[in-house]
Design brief:
Helices cover 52% and strands 7% of the residues. It has a 4-stranded mixed β-sheet, with helices on one face.
Length: 243
């Protein structure tokens, strides 16, 4: 029996992508928590497999040729797992290109823009005493988040999923839309996105994946709190420079 994949994880949208994929693909895995509010992402042993000091990352003991392989960056992990299992990532080149287009749209657009909207609306107000420093960023990224939801809504017109059948493209995008309210979005403006979200959130594999992050999520609540612990958590996450 193959050994389980080590998943270096914290319950964020990028982390949820991989637990969902692993559950959907039926792969055995073991979560190795990377507490991003305590600086676990900067530990040498983690940097050895994720040099960008970002989770998630995986170590598959049963990699190509039966030898271990580590993979960092959530998009690369999803593609690797799709190739490994032949699931949720089509072999047909035309179909695969469609999945890749929307996967990379999420990686380069949806995730970063929604993340910035969430940052300037949720975290930034507690990080500076001069709220004038926040206004432009909040407006800029809230508007860009709204534009991204519009792109997603148009793509889902007459479609159940982003690229034909349910795929790693949907798995990559779905977790980022879970905090739409924090991004300043009224989801009722985007009915196709609403329907797509409902289709995915009822899947048993998605429910199992999210449940595995709930215990860790309680620790993550400190990021939005106040006091020394929250300040230290935000320092670990934001405004880092080269080390």
């Amino acid at each position: 029996m193959p050994q389980p994949i080590d998943l270096h994880y914290w319950p964020t949208p990028n982390g949820h992508k991989i637990t969902i994929a692993l559950e959907e693909m039926g792969l055995a895995y073991e979560i190795k928590p990377v507490n991003i509010g305590r600086g676990d992402q900067f530990k040498p042993e983690f940097l050895a497999i994720s040099p960008n000091n970002r989770m998630p990352a995986i170590v598959d003991p049963d990699g190509p040729g039966g030898q271990p392989i580590s993979v960092f960056e959530s998009g690369a992990i999803l593609q690797y797992l799709g190739r490994k299992t032949g699931k949720l990532y089509p072999a047909d080149e035309r179909a695969r290109v469609a999945v890749d287009e929307w996967l990379f749209w999420q990686m380069g657009g949806l995730g970063p823009m929604l993340g910035q909207a969430h940052h300037f609306r949720g975290y930034a107000p507690s990080m500076t005493s001069d709220q004038r420093h926040i206004g432009y960023g909040a407006i800029r990224y809230t508007n860009e988040a709204h534009r991204m939801y519009g792109v997603l809504n148009r793509r889902l017109e007459g479609r159940d999923f982003l690229a034909g059948d349910y795929s790693i493209a949907d798995i990559a995008s779905w977790p980022w839309t879970s905090t739409w309210a924090m991004q300043g979005i009224n989801l009722e403006e985007f009915p196709n996105v609403q329907a797509w979200r409902a289709r995915i959130e009822t899947r048993d594999a998605v429910k199992r994946a999210l449940a595995k992050g709930e215990v860790l999520r309680r620790d993550n609540a400190s990021l939005a709190a106040s006091g020394a612990q929250a300040d230290e958590a935000r320092r670990m996450l934001f405004n880092q420079r080269a080390r």
